[in-house]
Amino acid sequence: MISFFTMRDFSFHGGGMIRILGLLSTLDYNDEQHRLFSNNLDTEFLTRNKLSGLNIEYMDLEFSKKEKRFFQLLLSFLPISIVNIFFTKTLNKLKAFSSEFSLDNQVLICCEYLDLSLGYYMKKNNLIGGYICDIHGLVPNEFKTKKNKRIYNYVRYCSASLLDQKVFSFCDGVIYASFAMKSFMEHKIKKLKTVNSMVIPYLVSEDKVNIKVDRVQLNRIRNRLRITTDHDVIFFAGSFKELGGVMDLVQAYHKIKLKRDNLKLLLIGGGDDLDKVKIYINENGLSDSIIHIPKVDYSELITYQELADVIVCPDRYNLYSNMIIHLKYIDSLVSNKIVINGSFDAVKELNIDQNLSINFTPSDINDLAEKIDYCLENKIQLGLKFKNNTDYVRDNLVYQSSKYNIANIF
């Protein structure tokens, strides 16, 4: 039986949860026996996510944000014996967990950053037989690129770099989000060349591709947001973070708005940069034409996307974005709308000759503004060009495929 391990309780439907559900669905699709160790108590979880072959085991193991940071800080700098002194209660819970499910000879697939740390911690304490890492992020790079609290983030960068060396040098296998990430990580940590690995990109589920626009809800949303068919609507849904490029998008929108009176910008999401974005909007008199919605249910995203003339994925240039295809890009393609995305290496491998979307130069606000303006000017022709993107995603970018059978890594 293949076992997944995550601290998630699955109450928040974000990118991390979608990734885990996607990996689980690959096993369901390929009729592999599997189970999930998590903090999930949702009794309808299996039915709602159509995971008929999955067994769920509740762990009752939680970390506060402070405990998580302290645990990973100690784990990065100190030997396991010292960490055990500070986390005796956690260790005892993990011992009971290991004993109950006879995990001392089992290999767990660990899904997110804290999960990877705990996989390492459990293996060093001989509580599991091993762990496989799903590497779909570059945590040290996130801290390295933050411009505020430089000393604090430098310490976190050093801690994350040391922890990566420990965790990935001791693991038993790796799932990478791209071949570029595989190459990067194997160059950075030589030990990774010696373990089993496979590449599973960010994908979507078949259910996501098959969700239809709710026309009744769409009309209600139009009325509520005061968006008419006469408006040209620019759309973004995702995290408001420094490298996410939302501020770039707002500034590009500001440039275009000067010559297009019927323009609206719809922003969905939140994050560290939200306050900064709101200040810019208010200071530049854009609040009447920019609409912000804190969040929408993932199943409703396709209906909100239907409001858009152009969907923008405005990520700034960074090492991580250059190596992987973001989930929001594939989510955008499913809509059959005109999509603008940064010309990252990973995207260009997929978007040959801009057959799926329009490229812009990442971090270049002027180029982003020009590409948005171009798309609006040519929205009828481009709309026809991209009208079958959903079919492409269904055929090539879903988790339910025999080529993404995680059992092959064992």
Query: What is the overall silhouette?
Result: globular
Distance between the termini: 11 Å
Count all strands and give the number. 13
Oligomer: single chain
Strand order of the largest sheet: 3-2-1-4-5-6-7
Share of residues in strands = 5-15%
Largest sheet: 7 strands, parallel
Radius of gyration: 22 Å
Judged by helices, strands and strand pairing, the structural class is: alpha/beta
Write out key terms for the chains shown:
single chain, 410 residues, alpha/beta, 47% helix
Task: Tell me about this structure.
By secondary structure, the chain is α/β, with parallel strands linked by helices. Helices cover 47% and strands 15% of the residues. The protein has helices spanning 15-29, 45-48, 65-77, 80-86, 88-100, 113-124, 139-145, 150-169, 179-188, 206-210, 215-225, 246-257, 274-283, 301-305, 319-323, 327-334, 345-350, 365-377, 379-385, 389-396, and strands spanning 2-5, 34-38, 54-58, 107-110, 130-135, 173-176, 196-199, 232-237, 263-268, 290-293, 310-313, 338-342, 358-360. The chain has a seven-stranded parallel β-sheet, with helices on both faces. A six-stranded parallel β-sheet has the order 10-9-8-11-12-13, sandwiched between helices. Helix 3 crosses helix 8 (150-169), helix 4 (80-86) packs across helix 5 (88-100) and helix 7 packs antiparallel against helix 8 (150-169). The mean pLDDT is 92.
